[in-house]
């Protein structure tokens, strides 16, 4: 649709990028899309979005003045160095998600997230460019496409868009997931000989986990990346949530610390805490909770039978503030088996003597 030139702003004395619309008359809506790109990007002022500085016409051709990003696109970075390292990939994911979060907050859906539209400067900062086919969520006609026409790049197209559903913020997140997959593996998640077959893969086929295709991503990173490629829009993270997740370093797979447990009240030794709703005796037939003594379980007499009350856990707070539950088990009476194990030698001697005398008496009786 256009060509990009590096130029110099003679008024402010700064280098800029000038995008010039091709004047070949092939697309009647090209100029309208060009103006849409200018209006869309002008609404965004974010460090991870290429900013728009000016818009005008020259010799009946529209031009767009943008910030100059001194670097390459991620498509060039991938072609030059191969798949990205997990650290670099996490940085790309965070920056791109930050830019998308800013666009989505303004009601803007990019609709064409791909490696060629993610620009990286010499410091590694990633910026989103080319809002030419973006649309406003609150303006269904803002996309400037005919009914039923699918715009965007098929390799990174969300499943809902493949079946004709309008793009949403979740569609951008799916496209970003495809881009991250491509940068991690060196190939997009789905490839097919025809455009129709490719759309069917996006709709029906689950992606192969990156580690099965040679990528060395931490397990947490891979699981999150696959969640971005979920078929249902509701199962994908938002751009804001993804940006925060990658910024937190959770992609490394380190366990998150457990929240500190609140200390509970310490019960008096030898006494169980009274249950809620059961106070002291009021003369209305209510009884106090049974006491728990260390010598054994409390018993309650009813109809001549003894019913043992199950011991309840006692809450104890340690010096470092942690809660523990101490379960007091009532002592058991020693049975016959432990007694025999304890006096094994004595039992063996007595048993041997008895067997000898029994054999002696039997011998005398028969012989």
Automatic annotation (TrEMBL):
Biased composition regions of type Polar residues, renumbered to the chain: 315-326
InterPro entries xref list: Kinase-like_dom_sf, Prot_kinase_dom
Residues annotated as domain Protein kinase: 1-246
Protein keywords: ATP-binding, Kinase, Membrane, Nucleotide-binding, Serine/threonine-protein kinase, Transferase, Transmembrane, Transmembrane helix
Presence of keyword Transferase: yes
Transmembrane segments: 346-366
EC number(s) recorded for this UniProt protein: 2.7.11.1
Residue segments, region Disordered: 250-330
Protein name as it appears in the record: non-specific serine/threonine protein kinase
